[in-house]
Amino acid sequence: MMPIVELAISIALLLGAILIIFLFFLSFISNVKLNSYLKKNNIDRWRYLTSIGQFGPGCSNIFKLIKYLYSDIDNNDSNIRVQKKRIRNYLTIILYVLIFFFIFFIALAILWKELDIP
User: Fold this and answer.
1) Nearest to residue 100, comparing CAs of 15, 16, 14, 11?
2) DSSP readout, 26-37?
3) For 116, left (φ over 0), alpha (ψ -120 to 50), or beta?
């Protein structure tokens, strides 16, 4: 039988992983909605955001997307502004969760060493 500390750590890891996967899924769905809206209403912006090097539009270019999400480009369109804000919020929460778990594991490693748990 698992000691209570190991069980609590396992549950925290599982919940954190589920949260991160869920937030990535929401971010992905919001990104798909943004891309489809841009393809329908602003085809030039969509081509720019989904082109990589010699490959034509339709690819996924995360670097251009991140730059676009945090810029003021197309913010006069309220639908794009809302979708960009939603994706930025999801990415911010994911970053906070990852930082929390990094600190959690560092503290856990220090505690594990201090308590001399095998």
Assistant:
1) 16
2) HHHHHHHHHHHH
3) left
Q: Which amino acid is at 78?
A: S
Q: Are 67 and 87 in contact (CB under 8 A)?
A: no
pTM higher than 0.85 for the full model? no
DSSP letter at 52? Answer: B
Query: How many other C-beta atoms can be found within 10 angstroms of the C-beta atom of residue 113?
Result: 9
d(CA 9, CA 13): 6
The CA distance from 6 to 39, in Å, is 49
Report the alpha-carbon distance of residue 26 to residue 90 in Å, rounded. Answer: 7
* Least confident range of 4-13, 16-25, 97-106: 4-13
What's the rounded Cα separation, in Å, for the pair 30 and 34? 6
Amino acid code (one letter) for 51: S
Query: Tens digits of per-residue pLDDT, 59-98?
Result: 777 888 889 889 888 878 888 999 999 999 998 988 998 8
